[in-house]
């Protein structure tokens, strides 16, 4: 998409909506469209446009002429800088309303479909401290505020926090994050303080040199914590010094891990993980099931809402004891294992081999015999041979990534024609696209959005499709 930098002032714009990326939408008297960060519908603002794209300007607010009734004071001191919680300035009730509105808009305008029943969005009791996984980066050149740049005193340039949006080499030093329960903040701040005290090198992402690279903290509702520190170089004495400090000062950490990553990016998935103390996993409980979560495991980042999401999928699926069920894009098998007792058999498919290994291990731990899992790229492995091995499904659960389902997967679903399809999506735009491809063969029975990510514009949506040949209401 073409873009060019501009420096254009526009006064008195009224914010009328929120776009798909969570930015405020306004129109000038001349009809120019502005996407404005850090504003909410109902605000009236003077803005500076800094980019012109095809069809709209990107802008930042300079002055508020009038504030919206839905505006609230963000509790986080880093709001507007770190980029992690772009909706903290919007009341939670308004967040839910705009998320639900966005989902319905996509279904109707992209998919050209409408559910017989739209169930109100499922919100959370507490929209803060809900995440069970946070990743922070070390930097020897942290992002500085204009006030820090102007002051004459020497400034500590080392930082531990989040990447500044659109600045891959700059880290916003975080004092307190409102997304993960304590002692997450205490652990992060203590590690930074100890590292500074002992003159440990923070990573330089441009030069690709240094020692301390990233910190990952995972936790469970049961109170277990995992800490994984990624080092750029293997310095045995310094590694042991830091990890012993964490072990001694934070007994909640039942899994203390590290890895040496000297490659060009921070990705852990091709790295060897070393267990310094405790287990190489933590355990999450979902109803009467338990799931081992390793450093590389995928697990829903909002565990309280995950339980409600899976219960909703079960309710929509209407499983019978004789049903054969497919769970496409199964991840570590959490949905499949939570549904296994309600059907004859369930087969999960996932492209990540380690996730399937975790799914099989979790099935073993929970004594589940009627769930099986296969590794494969969905568009290639979900073929006639797969169907002949496992039998035609009565019900299909599909929970694809943000890109949605590949057209070949949709075509195979239409070919095997399960009675019901439960489609869970983290991107209602691609979900709507896929539903349009299936609307000739399936009735759109019901839809419900689930807020898994408060303070952001992201939302999950669950829909039930019923085959027109079996829908008694068709």
Q: End-to-end distance, in Å?
A: 43 Å
CATH superfamily of the largest domain: Vaccinia Virus protein VP39
Write down how many β-strands occur, each being a DSSP E stretch of 2 or more residues: 22
Which outline best applies? globular
Report strand %: 25-35%
Which strands sit side by side, in order, in the main sheet?
6-21-22-20-19-16-17-18
Assign the CATH class of the largest domain. Answer: Alpha Beta
Rg on CA atoms, Å: 24 Å
What is the tally of helical segments?
11
| Largest sheet, strands/sense/barrel | 8 strands, mixed
> Can you give the mean pLDDT?
93
CATH architecture of the largest domain: 3-Layer(aba) Sandwich
Keywords:
474 residues, alpha/beta, OB fold (Dihydrolipoamide Acetyltransferase, E2P), Rossmann fold, 3 domains
Q: Could you walk me through the main structural features you see in this protein, from its secondary elements to its overall organization?
A:
This protein is an alpha/beta fold. The chain has 3 domains: 3-71, OB fold (Dihydrolipoamide Acetyltransferase, E2P) (Beta Barrel), CATH 2.40.50.140; 93-125 and 302-467, Vaccinia Virus protein VP39 (Rossmann fold, 3-Layer(aba) Sandwich), CATH 3.40.50.150; 133-286, OB fold (Dihydrolipoamide Acetyltransferase, E2P). Helix content is 25%, strand content 32%. The chain contains 11 helices and 22 strands. The protein has helices spanning 92-109, 146-150, 184-197, 236-249, 303-317, 334-339, 353-365, 378-381, 384-390, 407-416, 428-438, and strands spanning 3-18, 24-27, 33-36, 44-53, 56-66, 117-122, 133-139, 159-164, 167-173, 212-219, 225-231, 253-260, 274-278, 281-286, 289-294, 324-328, 345-350, 371-375, 395-398, 420-425, 442-450, 460-467. It has an 8-stranded mixed beta sheet with strand order 6-21-22-20-19-16-17-18, with helices on both faces. Strand 4 (44-53) and strand 5 form a beta hairpin. Helix 1 runs parallel beside helix 11. The longest helix is centred in the first third of the chain and has 18 residues, at 92-109. The radius of gyration is 24 Å and the shape is globular.
């Amino acid at each position: 998409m073409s873009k060019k930098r501009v420096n254009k002032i526009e006064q008195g714009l009224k914010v009328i909506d929120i776009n798909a990326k969570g930015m405020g939408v306004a129109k000038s008297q001349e009809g120019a469209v502005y996407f404005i960060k850090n504003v909410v519908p109902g605000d009236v603002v003077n803005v500076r446009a800094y980019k012109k794209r095809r069809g709209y300007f990107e802008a930042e607010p300079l002055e508020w002429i009038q504030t919206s009734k839905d505006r609230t004071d963000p509790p986080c001191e880093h709001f507007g800088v770190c980029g992690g919680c772009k909706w903290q300035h919007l009341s939670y009730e308004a967040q839910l309303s705009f998320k639900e509105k966005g989902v319905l808009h996509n279904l109707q305008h992209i998919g050209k479909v409408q559910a017989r029943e739209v169930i109100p969005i499922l919100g959370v009791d507490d929209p803060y401290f809900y995440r069970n996984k946070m990743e922070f980066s070390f930097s020897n050149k942290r992002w500085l505020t204009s006030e820090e740049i102007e002051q004459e005193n020497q400034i500590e340039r080392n930082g531990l926090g989040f990447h500044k949006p659109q600045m891959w080499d700059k880290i916003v030093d975080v004092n307190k994050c409102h997304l993960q329960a304590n002692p997450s903040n205490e652990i992060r701040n203590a590690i930074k303080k100890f590292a500074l005290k002992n003159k440990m090198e923070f990573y330089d992402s441009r030069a690709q040199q240094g020692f301390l690279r990233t910190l990952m903290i995972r936790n469970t509702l049961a109170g277990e914590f995992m800490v994984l520190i990624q080092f750029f170089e293997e310095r045995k004495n310094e590694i042991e010094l830091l990890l012993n400090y964490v072990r001694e000062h934070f007994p909640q950490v039942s899994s203390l891990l590290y890895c040496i990553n000297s490659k060009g990016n921070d990705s852990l998935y091709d790295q060897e993980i070393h267990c310094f103390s405790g287990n190489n996993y933590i355990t999450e409980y979902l109803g009467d099931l338990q799931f081992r979560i390793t450093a590389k495991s995928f697990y829903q980042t909002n565990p309280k809402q995950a339980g409600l999401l899976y219960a909703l999928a079960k309710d929509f699926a209407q499983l019978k004891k004789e049903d054969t069920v497919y769970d496409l894009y199964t991840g570590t098998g959490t949905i499949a294992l939570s549904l296994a007792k309600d059907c004859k058999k369930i087969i999960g498919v996932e492209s990540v081999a380690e996730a399937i290994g975790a799914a099989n291990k979790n099935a073993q731990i929970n004594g589940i015999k009627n769930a099986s899992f296969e590794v494969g790229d969905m568009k290639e492995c979900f073929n006639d041979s797969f169907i002949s091995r496992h039998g035609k499904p009565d019900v299909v659960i599909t929970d694809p990534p943000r890109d949605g389902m590949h057209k070949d997967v949709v075509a195979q679903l239409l070919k095997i024609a399960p009675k019901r399809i439960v489609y869970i999506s983290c991107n209602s735009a691609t979900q709507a696209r896929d539903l349009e491809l299936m609307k000739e063969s399936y009735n759109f029975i019901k839809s419900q959005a689930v807020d898994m990510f408060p303070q952001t514009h992201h939302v999950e949506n669950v829909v039930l499709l019923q085959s027109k040949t079996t829908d008694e209401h068709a």
